[in-house]
Amino acid sequence: MLFSEDSYRYMYAALQEAQKAFDDDEVPVGAVVVHKNRIIGRGYNQVEKLKDATAHAEMIAITSASNNLQNWRLNECAIYVTLEPCIMCTGALLSSRINELFYAASDIKFGACGSIHNLAENSKTNHTIKVYSGVLAKESEELLKTFFNKKRLNTKK
To answer: pTM of this prediction?
Structure first.
């Protein structure tokens, strides 16, 4: 086993959030924030539903976790995301002082944590994030492929 049992459990919880996005016809990305072995924030993409380009899973999970802790500093927290965060979300992770990031699938078009850029670990800001990738990657990739194949079929009709 490459990752801890807890890492798989938390990423599975993020996948459940991604399934909610899928069910709402949103790009299926989910995230959970963990503090002291407890999920304190959850989020899934709601860009279409909220008509808000910033309504990414990570942003919603960060807000939820911050409200839970009553603190914007999440430096004792880890986030589990089903898709590598984009530049916007990585900026929010850096600003919130998230300690660790675990992501499932790489994003070769928008990824900012290793694929295109690595802002999380190579940032010139006063904070960096430990990044781990590949936790339940196949499951996340399959959900994304299914979603986009469904979208392509619907546009051909």
So the answer is: 0.95
Give kind and range of the element (H or E) at residue 131. Answer: strand 130-133
Among the options 17, 58, 100, 139, which is catalytic? Answer: 58
Beta bridge partners of 100: 78, 130
58 carries an active-site annotation: yes
Please state whether beta strands 77-83 and 130-133 pair in parallel, antiparallel, or not at all (unpaired): unpaired
- Positions of E strands within 18-129: 30-35, 38-44, 77-83, 100-105
Asked if 84 and 113 touch (Cβ cutoff 8 Å), the reply is yes
Render pLDDT for 24-57 as a digit per residue (tens, 0 to 9): 999 999 999 999 999 999 999 999 999 999 999 9
Residues 79 and 10: their CA atoms lie apart, in Å, by: 9
